[in-house]
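ingest -> validate -> predict -> emit
validate: passed (alphabet ok, no gaps, 340 aa)
predict: started
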Amino acid sequence: MSRDGEPVRRSSRSRRAADAPAPAENGNSTRGPAREAGDRRVGSVGEASPLELLRSVLPDLTGAKLQVAEVILRAPAVVGRSSITWLAGEARTSAATITRLSTALGFDGFPELRAALAREHGRDVQAGWEKDIGSAISPDDPADKVLSTLAANQFSAARNAMASVDLEAMAEVADRIVSARRVQLFGEWGDAPPAQELYLRLFRIGIPVWFDDGAYFSQVGASLLTPGDVALVVSRSGDSAIAMKFLEVAQAHGALTVVITGNPQSPLATEADVPLNTGTGVGGSWTDYFAGRSSDTLVGALLWALVVQRVPDRVYDRMNRGDAPGHGSRSGAIFDNPMH
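emit:
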């Protein structure tokens, strides 16, 4: 039995020899016999996870040691940068108990356990950061470096779009939008902003356009299309079951189907009558996504500008039209600001 009145765990995962002497009550650990050559050393490539070691012995812990283990598992990052005194206070126990638990796990003492927790947290943070944000920006980068990195990604996306976009196809889509009785746009989540921007611009110059971002509304909207109308999807990945259904319904009603995407080999690009490649792939991180979104917005802006070129008189009329005063109607003042 241990001095806490708990059974001593003889785990095969522990790096402390089963017959090693117990540590002194003052908190100083006593090294057992030399570790075998195959043992996992703290700080080595094959280092065992301190949290996994804790979880493996948790069912056998009771009393004060269990309280210490629960605090560590609840807040490993905090423990990894805190003192043994702080941990003892949180677990309502003594520093000696923390030392005994550390050595039972195979560490020389709490400082070594704390260092292992800090390293593991750092690896988890780095892995999570790179998976979500990417490696182009690090957590410690100054603001000017972050700005220059994002700007460089935008410039790269613009160059990719200029080299990849099919201008003849863009012109065809612009012609069809101008003559359409109804233009139906679809985009969801991160694909919605460039689709909404295109919708607002087309609506402002009097194009009969609607925007949908959900399964039910998009299918209803697509069912209202007729031959000569246009159904346009913005999809960064080109892989969306809802968008695919939207295109299928639109095609069944005779509309021209268009997709703006960064993946010309995607299911949506294959299904659409006119795929418009933005030149920037999907990528696996936010910085890649940001660059792709910039190219989507550029292609959408180009399409709107081509439509405007085809109806300059309509634009002029709507910018200058107004109702006679005194009739209680809204005037054309809303068109005075080109930002609308």
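The two ends are 77 Å apart (CA to CA).
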